[in-house]
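User: Structure tokens for this complex, please. No commentary.
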Amino acid sequence: MDSGESEGGCLGLFVLLVGVSLLIVAVMWFVSLVGHALALTPTYPEFDRHDGAWIRAHYDAPGLGYVLTVLALVVGVPASCVLTGELWAGRAQVQRVLTLSAVLVVLVLAIAFAPAGRSH
Amino acid sequence: MWRHVYLPLALQIAGLTALGVLAAWLSVLLVTGPHAELILLIVPAAAGVAGWLRTPKVAPLRRRSLLQAAIDKAPHRFERPARPRHRLYGTWVESEDDRVVVALVYREPGSKKVTILERRNHRGDELEDAAASVAAVDERAAQLEREVRDRRRAERQAAERERHRQAQEAEDARLRAIDDQHARELAEREDQLRAEDARSRRREAELEAEALAKALRREP
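Assistant:
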């Protein structure tokens, strides 16, 4: 009985680990895709097939690129959605609109002028 | 009315035009760059322009201006101080479908937001009732404003009295401390004098004893 419970626990742990790994791969794949669209990071296949030297040879500051991509996804997209909703509904508060616009402008400028992305 | 309606409208048109031009320019940059991050700005800018285009412009500005005037031009405005720092009341009249609405409105100091406190509805042909409502609401607005002013004045006076009482207490405490200090110094001086007196009396007694002893002593 104890042996069966132990096997079940191991199987559960294995499934959990596989699930977490798949989730991490999916997140990395998605972040890399968005980062590549923003010209900041390599795609996940590039990331997967090549070593660090190749990535550093083809992309400047890939770490900064990933940070900016995550910021764009976590801060930029929600801020842009909220601002769009408020402006579309016509019930925007000036203070709120200015704050969100300032955040978005700073983020866009950071992405545009950051020393990260594909090497020329 | 021009200053409150058409000037803000002209500013809105200028701002929206600038926003539209900016959105178009960012769209060109998005394609030619390519700068995908510009989508974060283009979408809200386009939503702002579209949202402005699909909403009425003059009517809300006109209503807001009239609401402000309902308070600023109230009959009891002459009772107000030059720069009122309390809630201001007024009477707002507007037509709503086939009815006339007479409302008691107020605005907080430093705010432009006007809030409707209570409403009375009349049919369009109830001239006397509507006029009576306007007069009653005007009177109530003036009364409420007077009450606010009186309450503020009472609060100010109470605060002033409290400040005065605290200052008086502080002054009394200072005087008490000075009195205590004087009393202490006086007691110390008395003790000192008493001690000196005792010493001099003892010395006098010693001298007398010495003189008597000298007088009675048989010396060789």
